Amino acid sequence: MAIRHYHHHYHFSYLTSKKRHFSSVLIVIAILTVIFLALFNFVTPQRSLNLGQLSPTVILLASFNTLFRLLISYVFALIFSVPIALWITKSERTERILLPITDIIQSVPVLAFFPIVVLAFIKLHATEGAVIFILFMAMLWNLVFSMIGGLKTIPKDLLDAAKVFEIKGFNKLRYITIPAIFPYIITGSLLAWAQGWSLLIVAEALHSYIPGGTVGNDPLGLGSLLVNSFYQGQNAVFLGSLIAMIVLITLINFFVWQKLLHLAERFKFD
Amino acid sequence: MIAISDVNLSINEGEFFCLVGPSGCGKSTILRLIGDIEKPTNGTIEKPEEVSMVFQTGALLPWMTVEENVSLVNKIRRLSKLEIERQTTKYLQMVDLEPYRFRYPRELSGGQRQRVGIARALAVEPKVLLLDEPFSALDPVTTDEMHEYLLKIWQETKKTIVMVSHSIEEAVLLSDRIAIMKQGGIKQVIEVKLKRPRKEDAKELLKLLEEVKLILETT
Predict the structure, then answer these.
(1) Parent domain of A172
(2) Domains of chain B
(3) What is the ipTM of this complex?
(4) Could you give the percent of chain B with pLDDT greater than 70?
(5) Which of B58, B76, B102 has its CB closest to that of A4?
(6) For residue A251, what is the domain's CATH number?
(7) Average pLDDT of the residues in A144-158
(8) What whole-number distance in Å separates Cα of residue A17 and Cα of residue B97?
(9) In this complex, is the C-beta atom of B96 within 8 Å of any C-beta atom belonging to chain A?
(10) How far apart (Å, rounded) are the C-alpha atoms in residues A204 and A228?
(11) Residue of chain B with shortest Cα separation from A161
């Protein structure tokens, strides 16, 4: 057997190294902790906003809630964007028809296009559903258009090779298409999350969509805290939420996006 | 638009066959038809089941190591681990790249990458090996080296090789027969009866070269 040596620049490999294995376990534990914390919080009564009794703990909980919503929306957006992007780029004809349609959908603001859907969620008392739906729609198109861009950069020789070697269907997706557009998925995700963060202020401050709605209808989150504390002149809460949001965005940027952008380098074509 | 028409061509088993001609004459199309990349609008192609191909750019997956690139197709075809390892090692050794198996394509030279492409094509145990201008992006010294590799592999494995080339010199140096193409079809198929190993500056070879050039130039 040959001795396995990894080039020091690219220590990530398909062959999982122990070090990488360990770090991925840590990441999974961290993600699960956040999800469980958020879930526990979702089932407790303190899920909607009450500006009367605010403490640093509430801001922390709001951060978890917001992060959880963004994560769920992102996962949905990611799952939906792959087939949509593949469908649009399937042939020249599908692209000619579908691309303008999706272009219109994505350029009209989510809230202008889907108030009915949002209202339906609210009528069903599924406020969380409404928030996640808005964030999902905001995130989806960044991913879709990035992926379309990526799909067009796959070298023709590579697609021909897939045909010759009869790599098709799921195998083609897994071994060729997805890795080939991986850098584009990452940049699309970055944009999607940025879009998500900026839309939080609208998505979580839903009470203006509910006839006769008050601040009490808003789900607890950094977005709703920011908007409502600002309107009510509660500067301490406003500042606290703002700092929490900045810290969260910085941490995610540092621990997630920087790493993924570095990893994406390996997936680029020369 | 018609790329090629009235093409009637038979290639013998174990033969080293070359297609030459000006760009846009449809020589790559013939290769793509044999490789099942494109379907003919009319006519039939009779060929063995296993056909594989080496591409101009190598067409390697940059996110996979040399070893992973070579073994991918066998992995997808669910060969046993032992069998995959055996094939991968065998063909990496054949192209002298066994020590590079854990490198990534970007860490290799152009010639080495093309050799990985050859190893990958051989790893599926094809009857026919197609090569689409495989050395056109390489420097002359590397190209000479690649010619030697290709001849060695051809003699060792007894595969049928069909190669598209823009270089008549290459075709005359390597092949048993050459199809000289014109726009949209085959002009003439000539046999190269020279003994191997062939020298680039041998008199007979130069004479044949002139002959092929003449056929290409006359309309």
Answers:
(1) 57-267
(2) 1-49+127-219 (3.40.50.300), 60-125 (no CATH)
(3) 0.92
(4) 100
(5) B102
(6) 1.10.3720.10
(7) 95
(8) 23
(9) no
(10) 10
(11) B59
